Amino acid sequence: MERWRGRTAVVTGASTGIGHAVADALAHHGVKVVGCADLNISNIEELAKKYEQGPGSVEAIECDLTKPEQITAMFLHIEKQYGHVDILVNNAGLTHMDTLLTGRTEKWREIFEVNVLGLCICAREALRLMQKSGVTDGNVINISSIGGHTHIDFPEGHFYSGTKHMVTALTEALHREVRAMEPKNNIRITDISPGIVITEIGTRAMSQAVLPMQPSNALANDYQKLDASDIADSVLFVLAAPQHVNVKTLIVCPTQMPQLYYKPLDRFIMERWQGRTALVTGASSGIGYAIAEALAQKGMKVIGCARNIAKIQELAKKYKDGPGSLEAIQCDISKPEQITAMFEQIAKQHGHVDVLVNNAGLSHADTLMAGRTEKWREVFEVNVLGLCICAREALKLMQKDGIMDGNVININSQSGHAEFHFPEAHFYAGTKRMVTSLTESLHREIRAMEPKNNIRVTDISPGIVVTEIGERSASHADHAVQPPTAFTAQYQKLNSSDIADSVVYVLSAPQHVNVKTLIICPTQQPEL
Question: How far apart are CA 168 and CA 414, in angstroms?
Answer without folding.
Answer: 16
